[in-house]
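Dear Dr. L.,

I hope this message finds you well. Following up on our conversation about the binding site, I have prepared a predicted three-dimensional model of the protein together with IPE. For your records, I am including the exact sequence and ligand specification that went into the calculation, followed by the structure tokens. Please feel free to forward this to your student if that is useful.
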Amino acid sequence: MPNDQTQPLLIPNHIALIMDGNGRWAKQRGLPRNAGHKQGAKVFETICDYCQKIGVRYVTAYAFSTENWKRPKNEIDAIMDLLRSYLKEASKQTKRNVRLLFLGDRAPLAPDVQQLMRKAERDSAGNDGITVCIALNYGGRAEIVHSAKELARLAAEGRLDPESIDETVLVQHLYTKGIPDPDLMIRPSGELRLSNFLLWQMAYTEFVFLDVLWPDFTPAHLDLAIAQYAKRNRRFGGIR
Ligand code: IPE
Ligand code: IPE
Ligand code: MG
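The resulting structure of the complex is given below.
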């Protein structure tokens, strides 16, 4: 058996990221919370580039939750403005080979943001380098309710036999349809919870919690999380 050093590092196929700690990062520096979101957005791009470089196929990042509407309007507006800039920039960088997707309920978002999201998805649909999913106005519970509602509607219309509903059918109506479940979930910021992120999809995901704030997160932190992941014994309920 080769020892640990000679084994290539096991790279997760799909990494889920809870980009948390932007507000605290800004507070530490005496800056407005929005400065933390701005730095957080930069780090997001750096980490996506790094993931692509090391061979991660999917990254799903939590950008705005269904509960984040509780925040002051000026903070929400600033986050949406950062998203606008990101999407406008992304549309210029066609050579990056990133496929962009959005998870969540788009209806409450501003029409111009929805349009930019649709354009980014359409323009990048043929890219096969890495798939970056941005969870925006996303909630794990809302997603499951959305799927249940779709199934009920199809059943009421006589297009679906309720007896045929199983896990495979239910996942067809989740926002993540067609995307494999995350292998590794990383939450920086020191909080030890999921905050309504990918509740269905993370049934067997490995969790790594780090005591760093998202705007301070570097590729070295990602390496650290992957090294922890590589040591885990994933059993999926079986014996190994
Ligand atoms: C995460 O950082 C970004 C969003 C939730 C949009 P926070 O804004 O939650 O930062 P903290 O947790 O208050 O430090
Ligand atoms: C989770 O962070 C949501 C995002 C990172 C977008 P929160 O800061 O909203 O989570 P809680 O409120 O600490 O659980
Ligand atoms: Mg937070």
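In brief: The beta strands are 14-18, 58-65, 98-103, 130-138, 184-187, 206-209.

With kind regards,
A. P.
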